[in-house]
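A.,

Following up on our hallway conversation. Structure tokens first:
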């Protein structure tokens, strides 16, 4: 690998570069979080509390990181988590999809993404299309049919969202549309980030702030906030509704946002193929424990009846190893890939994936493991009371 000035050695450095490159509001939208930020911070802090117990001899000379998730072959146990984010890069989610394809991982595509499922699926990575419980049943079925026709490899239903707004550190202002008034208001922060501004100006288009995957068949593309309004107005689903949606999709199906063992069992009951232990990256109900704390109990509750993934707070290859040791089959990354995208486009996301791969490989070597799926809880040292059992 040739080391250029745009290469970075850690996700922390990618985040610093993202902060320097992005306008304040765009960076703030990626930091996200809710209320006090307790859950967002605990997602990262909890990984720091887990230690390792390394060996020094009898180590494996080569390590096998490959696995499958929802029937998709992956070069390592990492999937890019769906993130509905606008205005980071002029090509939106396309560079993320290209990076996923070049590094042999799958990509979750948010239904609030700025690029269409058709465009993103054409980039070559297996796409797991993510939906919320939004709109009437016809709209949901149409969304699924569109994803199927575009070649989505699986469906992710994200359930953890309670429309809590407000952050103690302040929320970024995001306009409904980039009209003249909005541009005037955002001009000072955009002008302070000439690299970012030039990338959009030279691409010939401004951030669309639209959600093309939420369009009704033959209908107009809604703005992000129009789509958000539809979702907000939709009564939350019962488990029977989740079972109904599962029945509308004949491929692999993940439920994302699980932290309780009783909910995990309901995910098995509805016939899902996978679940992600997740708290939406700390963007939902503040005070929910870090997802890594809830992982072991959920994994124990469902056994091998459903594939268990984890997302929230993964920033290095060692974190991937910790999650696998605690019972995950794979992890999903949200902000890490967004920092990479902001820092250096497709190459930045590839850089992040390479950091995770080399970090996981080095960790396996030190732990004397030849395969990522050999990791067990004996490989990590957890302080007393680390894990939490939510529900029963
Ligand atoms: C800016 C942002 C936007 C997100 N948008 C979505 C989304 O549209 N759909 C979804 O299922 N999860 C969404 N998430 C949650 C991520 O998929 C994932 O659960 C979370 O980012 C994992 O935590 P991490 O950022 O610490 O890796 C979003 C997260 C962030 C930070």
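Then the amino acids I'd put at each of the 392 positions:
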């Amino acid at each position: 690998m040739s080391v250029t000035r745009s290469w970075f050695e850690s996700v922390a450095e990618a985040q610093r570069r993202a902060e320097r490159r992005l306008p304040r509001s765009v960076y703030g939208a990626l930091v996200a979080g809710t209320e006090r930020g307790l859950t967002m911070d605990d997602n990262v802090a909890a990984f720091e509390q887990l230690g390792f117990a390394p060996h020094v001899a009898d180590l494996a000379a080569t390590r096998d990181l490959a696995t499958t998730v929802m029937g998709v072959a992956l070069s390592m146990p990492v999937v890019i988590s769906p993130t509905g984010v606008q205005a980071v890069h002029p090509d939106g989610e396309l560079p993320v999809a290209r990076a996923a394809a070049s590094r042999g991982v799958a990509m979750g595509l948010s239904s609030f993404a700025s690029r269409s499922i058709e465009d993103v699926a054409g980039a070559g990575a297996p796409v797991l299309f993510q939906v919320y419980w939004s709109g009437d049943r016809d709209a949901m079925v149409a969304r699924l049919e569109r994803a199927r026709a575009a070649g989505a490899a699986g469906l992710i239903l994200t359930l953890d969202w309670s429309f809590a707004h407000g952050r103690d550190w302040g929320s970024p202002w995001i306009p409904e549309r980039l009209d003249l008034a909005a541009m005037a208001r955002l001009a000072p922060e955009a002008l302070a980030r000439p690299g970012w501004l030039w990338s959009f100006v030279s691409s010939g288009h401004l951030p669309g702030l639209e959600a093309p995957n939420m369009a009704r068949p033959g209908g107009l593309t809604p703005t992000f906030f129009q789509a958000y309004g539809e979702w907000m107005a939709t009564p939350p689903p019962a488990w029977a509704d989740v079972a109904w949606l599962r029945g509308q999709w004949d491929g692999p199906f993940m439920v994302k946002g699980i932290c309780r063992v009783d909910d995990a069992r309901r995910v098995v009951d509805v016939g899902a193929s996978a679940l992600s232990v997740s708290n939406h990256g700390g963007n939902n109900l503040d005070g929910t424990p870090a997802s890594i704390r809830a992982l072991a109990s959920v994994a124990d509750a469902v056994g091998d009846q459903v594939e268990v993934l984890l997302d929230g707070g993964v920033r290095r290859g060692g974190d991937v190893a910790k999650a696998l040791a605690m019972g995950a089959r794979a992890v999903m990354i949200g902000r890490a890939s967004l920092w990479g995208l902001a820092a250096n486009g497709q190459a930045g996301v590839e850089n992040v994936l390479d950091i995770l791969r080399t970090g996981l490989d080095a960790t396996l070597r030190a732990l004397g493991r030849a395969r990522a799926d050999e990791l067990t809880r004996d490989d990590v040292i957890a302080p007393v009371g680390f894990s939490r059992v939510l529900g029963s």
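Residues 29-30, 32, 43, 81-85, 110, 112, 130, 158, 256, 278, 280-281, 283, 311-314, 333-336 surround flavin mononucleotide (CB under 6 Å). Curious whether your intuition agrees with the design.

B.
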